[in-house]
Write a structure and sequence with these properties.
This protein has about 100 residues and is an alpha+beta fold. The protein has two helices and two strands, in the order H-E-E-H. It has one domain: Distorted Sandwich (Acetylcholine Binding Protein, Chain: A), CATH 2.70.170.
Amino acid sequence: QLKPFQIECDSRTKKISEILDILIDNSTYDKRLRPKHGEEPVNVGITIHVSSVSAISEVNMDFTIDFYLRQTWNDPRLAFSHYLYDIVENNIDSLTVN
């Protein structure tokens, strides 16, 4: 038996999926290809956040590091189309595509 919270989440997930299907035109967008495939290189920004440095060995000249790596770039294939504004305006606050 579904609980009210599950129904609300399932409904919201379905709505977000519908919006993503409208926003991302699969005839022009292929997530396996980099932006501007076959054209100029894509500028990729990189940020590294070091969370810890440990197990430093002077004898072996090595160390262990834990870090977060963030990569950012612009993909014009995901540009927002103005005619979809009414669909998205009140439904989602942000959009993350994996």
